[in-house]
Amino acid sequence: MSGVSSIDMEEHTLSSFAHYSLDISTLVYRNSLIIRAFAFFGRISVILYDYLPDSQISTDELLFQSFMLTLSTYLLLLGLRPFLATPPDFNVLRLYVQEFKSTGIPLRDLNFLYRTAATYTKLRCGEVLMVDGQELDTLYFVASGSVVFLKEGRAVGKMDTRSTNRLVGELGFQSRLHNGGVRSSRRAAAAADVVAGVKGAELWAIDGQKLRRLMKQNEEINRSVNQVLANAMHTKLLFMLEKQ
């Protein structure tokens, strides 16, 4: 009796998982890679569900399910290829968790953005990142350490890993983003000197021209970058209101 109950339980579990993986998951998840992974494991569950009761499976069913499993495997590997070819390093994973995960962008797209448009920059204490009035077409993200904003030699602000907004140069980037890459006003220039803090700074330096090109080509990257920029502007606006 216990053996029959065990088999019934296994059949029910496999049937439920296959139904969720092949049908319901497509309604729950938007990420194509997750859907492909569910389809792959769902096909394996279907084969096991057909095989378990009497330890055999019809030839027609085996051929059909084998074909569908092969197709699922191919699509899954196709989705994993960019990720496996250039696995994300710690800096990409950290930025994904801290800043981009909430936007819904797939990790593979952020990794592609990093490999295509960004460089990792390290500054020593007091080293200059940009000077007041410098024309900008680079978006910086503070990954470690801190940067200090100076006006006429006096510190007027600081940004570190605890800051809600860790973007530097977003005003200049947005100005060019909405004007086809052309500087439209002083907003495209730095409004203060920016130097590395006491313990130095590590930053992502994202090339503005390359990022705009990626945003045109990839809708998920476009949506996520715009959301991060909007969050940064919201934080900066709140800060300015609190100062008044």
UniProtKB/TrEMBL annotation:
PROSITE patterns: CNMP_BINDING_3. Residues 120-232 form the Cyclic nucleotide-binding domain. This is Cyclic nucleotide-binding domain-containing protein.
